[in-house]
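BUG: 3D viewer hangs when loading the predicted structure for this chain

Environment: internal workstation, default settings.
Expected: structure renders.
Actual: progress bar stalls at 90%.

Input used:
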Amino acid sequence: MTFMAAINQIWKCLPGLLLVLLSVNFSTLAFGKGPVEMSHSLSLVTMVPLLELEKKLIDNLENYTESVEQKLLYIRSQVAVMRAENEKGRLDPTSYLFNPLNGFSLIRRLNQDWIGWRQYMEKPVAVSQIRNMHRWMDELPTETDLWDACTGIVRIQSTYKLEIQDLTSGRFNGRQYNASMGLADIFAIGQHLVEEQKPLEAVQWLQEVLTHHQEDLVSLPAHLTVREVEVLKILAEIHLKKKNYEKALLLTDKFLHIKPHDAALLRTKNLIESQPNRGFEDNEQRKDSKEGLKFKCDKIKDKPSRLLHCSYNSNTTPFLRLAPLKMEQIGLSPYLVLYHEVLYPRELEILKSKAAGNMKIAKIHNRNPQQKRKGRTAKAFWIKEENTELNKRISRRIQDMTGLDLAESEKLQVINYGLGGHYHQHLDHFNIASGKSKGIPLRQKLALGDRIATVLFYLTDVEQGGATVFGHAGYAVYPRAGTAIFWYNLHRDGSGDPLTRHAACPVIVGSKWVMTKWIRERGQIFTRPCLPPPAGSPSKS
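Structure tokens produced before the viewer hung:
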């Protein structure tokens, strides 16, 4: 090959080389990093930008179609001209070619024009739109994000014992919403449960895919269609592993009806037919039912007591004599009260807006990353201890509600929950008095002591779900914007109260915002001194 021929070959390949370069993710190439882990589904507020990202992608795809259409319109207009000339010659080829101008034009067109058309056909279309797509790939949710989202939906369904058919059609606890799950959504949940080694639940979701399959085929583009054979194959494998040979054989037959010459499947069918039938094992069902009972979110009821009442609290601090607080007594063991209208709408909006752009994954003390993700699905923001007017007002209100000194308390933490957002059963105190606390630095133990009390503010209403439940005590408090609950975590002798174990039930519908204030015991030496229990009696508050 001559030097000029090599140059010409490279020139012809240049458009293809450009496309390859455009497809390279330069941030990954330069820095060795993939998509940034955002944990979008752990907080609804951080999911809002995803709608803007999706809009950009849709607009970009529309611009792509317009570029393609312009190329198609141009080609169609030229095809009409070329076809007219070609048909004129084919009507009477001899007469047409008698004229030297027609013969010359035919040879020139075939020698030059069609090389130009080949180059035009190979020329990339909508290069800028393709570049945009590659640039935005790193902003898309990751596999971990999808895992979190699937886990959230499964948590809602299993915790509240919702029928899968109701959930997929957007019906929660008898209320119909203008939303539903598509075929790909349902299939993604089924695949997730298979990967999580939960075959019994996976079968229920995958069967729902088959139910919706035919009706959704019309509306889905081919490259997004969930193939029926893929669903049947997964179901057959699940039943085969569980030794439910009768169902596995039925599904295999359906599979073979679609792909009759699949050799591997024919061998599987022969293997199944040689086995005796056994029922579907339900060990997982028993395990899952125990898991669901630990929250009691679908059946918790308040324990009535003749001593419980609503009142105006005017005694905790002198200021309350002028402006008493509305207080509802929830329970006495442990002592738990609910304060109404302690935050105002304007304050609620300021707190949420201050936190919205700075949310981080909420952590759990002494937990590895995987346990944290399973035990708490939310994002949080610690409000700086600034000497602002809002911080002053909130601190004064907390002192009025609790009568405790806030000098040694922790910063306010604003929390927002995401898809099926929850917090498993836990204790707020560190159990320092028992000497068994872990993950807490010794310096912090000595300086601040344990968490003597908790004040939990609700910054929003939640339409369904999201209750704070004290499972062992039998209390449930449902979020209402502007309210706050207060309880003591420690007995008067400094030991932890196990009855304060509580959980945040999964959110079904709504955005749950809360704000927490943990108050430490060292600052309460004069306001609530530690008292030894009476001789021979158990410790109690």
